[in-house]
Amino acid sequence: MNNNIFYIDMDSFYASVEELNDQKKEPLVISMNYDKSIILSANYLAREKGITSGMPLFLAKEKYNKIKICNPNLEKYNFYSLKIEEILRFFSSTVVKQSVDEWYIDFSKSNLIYNDEYELASRIQNKIKKDIGLSSSIGISYNVFFAKMASSIKKPFGIEIISKENFKSVIWDSDISKLHMIGKKTTIEMKKIGINKISDLANFKDLDLLKEKFGIIGIKMHEYSNGIFNDFVSNKNTSISISKTFNHLLNDEREVWKNFKSIFEELWEKTAYKNLFFKKIIITFYEKNKSESKSFTFNNYNLSYEKYFLQATVLFDKISIKKNLNKISINFATLIHSFEFKDQLDLFTNEPEKDIVSKVNKKLKEKLVTYANKKLI
Ligand SMILES: [Mg+2]
Q1: Closest Cα partner for 345 from 25, 53, 44, 1?
Q2: How far is the CA of 307 from the centre of ligand 1 (A)?
Q3: pLDDT of residue 307
Q4: How far apart are CA 143 and CA 149, in angstroms?
Q5: Given phi > 0 = left and psi -120 to 50 = alpha, else beta, which region is 151?
Q6: What per-residue confidence (pLDDT) applies to 334?
Q7: CA 243 to centroid of ligand 1, rounded, Å
Q8: d(Cα 7, Cα 69) in Å, to the nearest integer?
Q9: In the Cβ-directed half-sphere of 286, how many Cα atoms lie within 13 Å?
């Protein structure tokens, strides 16, 4: 098998779990039952009525007033998530959980002999369906990035292979926003320089402009769109750091600051180059016989350089030893690879939620929409 990475993504997971025992299938959404609450998941029958996740319930009711509403039950979803994972582990021990309803499996070191990727995926899919009753879609590729993209192409209950041979015909014609990892902002910036389709990025000649606009990630994206994944970093390391030892003692605070800043920038580049995101910053200053550390943990991944740098500055100020330094080290911890970072609407995190809620309120010119209480969920 040349394409060893399988990406399994359950189809409208919460809604599917809720309708497991229903005889009659009907349009159904997962939401708290207040008009202002936001829909977390909609089944395919509801989607046919134009109802999507992220929509406030009252708008959904306007589209279909007999919509069935189920309160979210995270315990139940976790229970089924574990059951699915058990089935996946029956096929391989290298199952990596990405979220409550997404996993990838690396079959490259598998002892089992499979000749045909499609047949294996179909067996996995059918076993989940038969044993639990839930529908999944599976993407297959030679890297996680394409496997994840492939999983969404033929939903629901689909299987798609993106190989070294066919990737151009499968993805090149798609809108640039479909390239995994490209978020809304990057999409807008890409379109400004004439990159509308994935093929436009793949054939883009001005690499300096890509680097200038998007940093090293721009170059990586260009490689990905050409099917090149030389430096895929697995998420084994939990932190990345740079330490610098000085051959003379730093006594001047401005000099300490200058070095600190340049180490921070170097580490930022290194992290971006490896496509890693982080949540925690730890800085340590060393004197001859003592050291002092300060750290800060953010709530989210993928914040702007300015936000991280500002926080690093605050940590710098908090450290009391700034004289006779012989070493400075900065560490970014709680790393995830960008493959694992979901740049999509996730209603259980804060920022995208705030964004959509304020947008809806703006549209309605009134503060009508509020959040479903996380504790109630
Ligand atoms: Mg899913």
Answers
A1: 53
A2: 31
A3: 84
A4: 10
A5: alpha
A6: 84
A7: 41
A8: 30
A9: 12
Cα–Cα distance, 63 to 42 (Å, whole number): 13
Vertex 236: Cα angle to 230 and 238 (nearest 5): 120
Residue spans of alpha helices (H) in 294-350: 305-318
Q: Are 230 and 219 in contact (CB under 8 A)?
A: no
For the sheet with 102-106, list strands across it: 95-99, 102-106, 5-10, 136-141, 159-162
Q: How far is the CA of 47 from the centre of ligand 1 (A)?
A: 14
CA atoms within 13 A on the CB side of 176: 25
> 42 C-alpha to center of ligand 1: Å?
11
Q: What's the rounded Cα separation, in Å, for the pair 224 and 201?
A: 10
Q: Give the CATH architecture of domain 170-225.
A: Orthogonal Bundle (1.10)
Ligand 1 midpoint to CA 12 (Å)? 5
Between CA 117 and CA 139 the distance in angstroms is 10
CA 348/CA 104 separation, integer angstroms = 22
Per-residue pLDDT tens for 333-372? 988 776 555 443 333 333 444 455 566 556 555 555 554 4
What distance in angstroms lies between residue 337's CA and the mean position of ligand 1's atoms?
A: 19
Could you tell me the pTM of the whole model? 0.65
Q: What does the pLDDT read at residue 343? A: 41
Neighbours of ion ligand 1 (CB under 5 A): 9-10, 13, 101
List, in sequence order, the alpha helices (H) in 40-73: 44-48, 57-63
pLDDT digits (tens, 9 = 90+) for 91-148: 988 888 877 899 989 888 776 667 789 999 999 999 999 999 999 999 999 988 899 9
Name the CA dihedral angle for 213, 341, 118, 201, rounded to a multiple of 10 degrees. Answer: -10
Q: State the Cα–Cα distance between residues 167 and 144, nearest whole angstrom.
A: 14
- The domain spans of the chain are 170-225, 239-334
Distance 233 CA to ligand 1 centre (A): 24
Per-residue pLDDT at 366: 55
Class level of CATH domain 239-334 = alpha beta
CA gap 296, 132 in Å, rounded: 42
Residues in the chain: 377
